[in-house]
Amino acid sequence: MTAHPPTVPGVALPEPIIDAATVARIATEAARQVDGVCAVNPASVRLHDRSVGLDLHLITWYGHNVAAVAETVRAAVADRITTSTGLTVATVTVTVDDLLVPGVDGG
Fold first, then answer.
1. What CA–CA distance (Å, rounded) separates 4 from 17?
2. Residue 7 pLDDT
3. DSSP for the chain?
4. Is a pLDDT exceeding 80 seen at residue 91?
5. In what side-by-side order are the strands of the sheet with 88-100?
6. Which among 2, 46, 68, 101 is least buried, having the fewest CB atoms inside 10 angstroms?
7. Angle of the 20-32 helix axis to the 66-85 helix axis, nearest 10
């Protein structure tokens, strides 16, 4: 059984502090789960009150629709961050930096 801190009616508990490194880790993990993503680099995280903006750089595998992969990453990252942190995701900018060919580029 997990002990919960006592609550006082009418007094809200402080919200957990979410830092940029935590948001970057969550975003990277979510993006890596998307089919077609080879590597992810969280370029920047901008926290403001209860919202966040992110820039991600991806490397994708040849044979996948790059635009579809980017859009799926955008949606997956926004959903995971909102679910995991309660933050509102203002923007997720996805840049595809490279396209790797399996058997040629080490995959």
1. 18
2. 59
3. -------BTTBPPPPPP--HHHHHHHHHHHHHTSTTEEEEEEEEEEEETTEEEEEEEEEEETTS-HHHHHHHHHHHHHHHHHHHH--EEEEEEEEEEEEEPTTTS--
4. yes
5. 37-48, 51-61, 88-100
6. 2
7. 130
CA–CA distances in Å: residue 65 to residues 27, 35, 62, 71, 91: 21, 10, 8, 10, 22
- Residue-wise pLDDT for 17-31, tens only, equals 789 999 999 999 999
pLDDT tens digit string along 93-106?
999 999 999 877 76
pLDDT tens for each residue of 31-85? 999 999 999 998 899 999 899 999 999 999 999 999 999 999 999 999 999 999 9
Spacing of C-alpha 71 from chain mean position = 13
